[in-house]
Specification:
The protein has twelve helices and 17 strands. The chain is α/β, with parallel strands linked by helices and 359 residues long. The strands form four sheets. Strands 3, 4, 5, 8, 9, 16 and 17 form a seven-stranded mixed sheet that branches. β1 and β2 form a beta hairpin. The radius of gyration is 21 Å and the shape is globular. 48% of the residues are buried. It binds zinc ion (2 copies).
C-alpha cells in the first residue's frame, strides 16, 4: 500500500537545484512528449560545465528549485512526437546546450544560440524553460533542428564536448582570427580554454601562449601546443612584450568571464588587435574604458557560442575527430554521486579539469 504514497510521475533519477551550493540527487518528474516536435532522449553521458557553477553559487538569480541541472549530453532517442522526422527510437544523438528552430532569422544566419524560439537546457524560471541533462531522461523540443546525429565512429565524450565546450573553443579561436603567424594568448586553461587551444592550433596559430594558475592545466595546455605561463611565477605582461618587440599580442582569447581576465586581455593586446571573449560575463561594467578601447583600436567579439551551427560544422569537416579533446575529462562520476561531483569540479579537487556523469 505504501507505493501509493509515492507520486506516480516522480520516477526518473536526476540532479536538481536545491538552492545555493545544493545539488540534490533524487526522483524528478519523468519527461513527457508535450509538443509534436519533441523527443525524449535517454541520457548516456552528461557533463558538468563551468556555467553550471554560476547557478551552483547563486550568481544567476532566480533559477527554480527542483530544476534538473545541466546542458551537456549525449544519449539515445526513446520516443518522438508525431512531427519528428529525422530521428526515431534508437537514434544516437548529441545536443547543443540550447534548442533551436532551424527556421528563424537567427537560425538561418547561423546564430542558433539566439534562436527566437530557443531555450537553454537546465534553466527553469517561474515554471518556464527547460529541465536539464543531469538525469536519466530529457525532453528535447524542436528535436529535428536541435539534435545532431552521433555516428557510431564518434565516442560519447567527443559528442558531449561538441555540444558545448569544443564548439565554444572553436568559436573563440575563430573570432580571434587565429591563423598562422602572429602572437596570441589564451587566458584561462579550464575546459573551454583547453578546447580553444586545440582550435587555435588547428587554425594555424603559432606563437600561442596560455595563462593559468594551475600547473596541471598548464601541462595540458602545453600538450595541446601552447606555451604555458603561470602569473604567480612569471610576469606575463613582460613575456608577451618581449615576444612581440614591445607591441603586445595580436589576439587574446579570454575564456574566464571575469573583469580581471578582461583587464589582463586589454593590457596584453597590441593596438588594432582582437579580444575574443567566450567566458560568461555577468558584470554590468567593462574593466576597460571606452577611451582605452578607442586608443587601442580595439576589435572586441563576445557572446554565447551558436553551438548547433558549430557542432554540425566541426563534425562535417572532421575536426573533432582529429584531436584527443576528451583528454580533459579527468573525472567520471555516477549520477547518484552528483553532489560530490559538483564539489570536486568546483574546488578543482584532485586536479579535476572536467567531470562527467553516468546515469
Ligand atoms: Zn556549458
Ligand atoms: Zn530559430
Amino acid at each position: 500500500m505504501e507505493d501509493f504514497l509515492v507520486p506516480y510521475f516522480h520516477s526518473m533519477q536526476a540532479l536538481t537545484f536545491g538552492g545555493i551550493e545544493s545539488i540534490i540527487y533524487g526522483a524528478a518528474p519523468d519527461p513527457k512528449i508535450l509538443e509534436p516536435n519533441d523527443a525524449i532522449v535517454q541520457i548516456s553521458l552528461s557533463g558538468i560545465c563551468g556555467s553550471d557553477l554560476h547557478v551552483y553559487h547563486g550568481r544567476e538569480a532566480g533559477l527554480d528549485k527542483g530544476t534538473v541541472m545541466g546542458h551537456e549530453f549525449t544519449g539515445t532517442v526513446m520516443e518522438t512526437g508525431a512531427k519528428v522526422k529525422k530521428f526515431h527510437k534508437g537514434s544516437r544523438v548529441l545536443s547543443p546546450f540550447t534548442t533551436s528552430c532551424g527556421e528563424c532569422f537567427y537560425c538561418r544566419i547561423g546564430l542558433t544560440c539566439r534562436c527566437e524560439k530557443g531555450n537553454l537546457f537546465g534553466w527553469m524560471q517561474s515554471g518556464h524553460g527547460l529541465h536539464g541533462a543531469q538525469a536519466q531522461f530529457i525532453r528535447v523540443p524542436m528535436a529535428d533542428s536541435t539534435l545532431i546525429a552521433l555516428s557510431s565512429d564518434l565516442n560519447e565524450e567527443k559528442g558531449l564536448l561538441l555540444g558545448d565546450i569544443f564548439s565554444t573553443g572553436y568559436f573563440c579561436a575563430e573570432n580571434a582570427g587565429a591563423k598562422p603567424g602572429g602572437t596570441s594568448v589564451v587566458i584561462g586553461c579550464g575546459p573551454v580554454g583547453l578546447m580553444t587551444i586545440i582550435a587555435a592550433k588547428h587554425l594555424g596559430a603559432e606563437n600561442l601562449y596560455a595563462i593559468d594558475y594551475q600547473d596541471e592545466r598548464l601541462q595540458m595546455a602545453k600538450e595541446f601546443g601552447a606555451s604555458p605561463l603561470n602569473p604567480s611565477i612569471i610576469d606575463v605582461k613582460a613575456v608577451i612584450r618581449d615576444a612581440t618587440t614591445g607591441r603586445g599580442a595580436d589576439a587574446i582569447m579570454e575564456v574566464v568571464g571575469s573583469s580581471e581576465a578582461l583587464r589582463l586581455a586589454i593590457d596584453l593586446l597590441r593596438p588594432g588587435g582582437i579580444i575574443s571573449s567566450v567566458g560568461v560575463h555577468t558584470e554590468n561594467k567593462f574593466s576597460f574604458s571606452p577611451g582605452e578601447a578607442y586608443d587601442k583600436n580595439l576589435i572586441y567579439k563576445i557572446g554565447r557560442c551558436p553551438a548547433h551551427y558549430y557542432a554540425e560544422k566541426l563534425l562535417r569537416e572532421e575536426i573533432i575527430q582529429r584531436y584527443p579533446a576528451e583528454k580533459i575529462i579527468t573525472h567520471h562520476f555516477q549520477l547518484n554521486d552528483g553532489a560530490r561531483a559538483y564539489e570536486v569540479f568546483d574546488k578543482k579537487l584532485d586536479n579535476c579539469i572536467k567531470a562527467v556523469l553516468h546515469p
